[in-house]
Amino acid sequence: MSVSGDSPDGDAARTAVEFVDELRARLAEAEETLRAIRSGEVDALVVSTTEGDRVFTLHGADEPYRIMLEQMSEGAASLSPDGVLLYANRRLAEMFAVSLSTLVGSPFERFVAHEDRDRLANLFASSGDETRGSGELTFLSGDGRRIEAHVSVTQLPEATGQAWSMVATDITERVRMEEELERRVRQRTADLEAANKELEAFSYSVSHDLRAPLRAIDGFSKALLEAYGDQLGEDGRHDLHRVRANAVRMGNLIDDILQLSRLSRRRLERVPIDMSGLAREVIDELSDSEAARVVDVEIVDGLFAEADPELVRTILQNLFANAYKFTSKTTCPRVCFGAVEQNGVVVYFVADNGVGFDMAHGEGLFRPFHRLHRQTEFPGDGIGLATVARAVHRHGGVIWAHGAVNEGATFHFSLTPGARPPASAATSDTTIPKWQPTS
Amino acid sequence: MIDDLKRVLLVEDDADDEELTLRGFKRINLENPVDVARDGQEALDYLFGSDGRASRPLPVVVLLDLKLPRIGGLEVLKRIRSEERTHRVPVVILTSSSEDRDIIDGYDSGANSYVRKPIQFDEFATAIAQLGMYWLMINSPAPPAD
Asked: Is the ipTM of this complex over 0.95?
């Protein structure tokens, strides 16, 4: 277009350079402003125009935040480094029962219970990279109420002069409910301890006072038989024998109830037990006392447990005695003791081929005094299986049974937690939560 | 002659148990006198002479029930063991209770033996007979202190 030189054209060129420089400067300024807006450092712009400076607030950017802060159900505030409230939302003012204008400018400490002021200081003590904290504080509201709150604080970036933001959640109701719950637990525990003491006193009394009259009934019946047996005649003697037999039966019943109640009070002691050996011992005792019976007994070798020896003996004694009893009308009676594994838990079993039981009535099997057979068919007091179940539960184990009329019964039990009765089994449901899936 | 002086003290509040125990002794034709105290206080009075018969010789054995009116059996036992005059007297606890706690407390308090009263009279009578035989005929009591 033209050639530069000392001419009016030269001035024009210089002006153009200045113009470009000015444009460059304005571009840089615009870019800096944009950067500031993008990074959140600016929330308003002052723009010079021919009509003077105009302020443009970044309306769209912070409005949602403000609305959120005002609407949220937590109290929110920002605080200066020395703890003066710079901003507070309406919820916080409600919580403290003061007006917003009173709140802003007040020291936050004023609303914190005296005993919690150290905790407040700790909450705001930032060390190193630790620029946030949370904890529970008790607030004192303007109208004198105590408010339990969970408080979270965060130190804001340096550009804001190291102010803090704070969010406080009113947990007064929750704390009250927790305290109420705790109180009720304490109450229940005390009730339970009292009930236990009472039960202990009761069983002591049962053991002592209920037995004495039975001894008298038996003793004087015997005296009568010895002195006047001849005069009583056969029927009279028969009746007296019935009286004595019943005194003995009631004595055994009392002893069994006592054993059942003692099982729950005894301290559980786990030691390694040779289960096969113990089973053989129990069977030997049983066959000694039932010498007339011939029962084919099979005990699987090499079974062990880590359990309470006395409780396990009680379990085996009862289960084997039942197996003997309920095979007494079976030709070729058989009893078997073995174990299977379920979910890594050893589950022992005692099986027999006796009269069995109807699974339809199985739900009462482990209940004290519940019997599935008539006294005249198979004598018993209905405490044996309840005792076994309690001994198993004391170990954290479970017990279940399968049976069919005239096809025998099998009792499974574990001595460690983790096993589950199959859905089809008769169980003692007292310790098995309903929600537990059964395999 | 000396044997005639061997006495048994039965501490028992239940009249039926008292009668059955005496019958048990009678079964083995035991001629020795059996004195009966019907509660703990009576037993202590008997042993320590506060009933005005202080010169009476000590029993060769005390058969002691645990559950007694006024002063309980364990307390009676402790008093027997703590007094110079009576601390060597053999004491057999004869009770209905088979609570571990009672057995332990019994021995800890210085009982020489612990026998649970059986319900069946035949067993009870056997236990009484054996106790009588052992403590009156086999066991040697400590010589009287003077």
From this structure: no
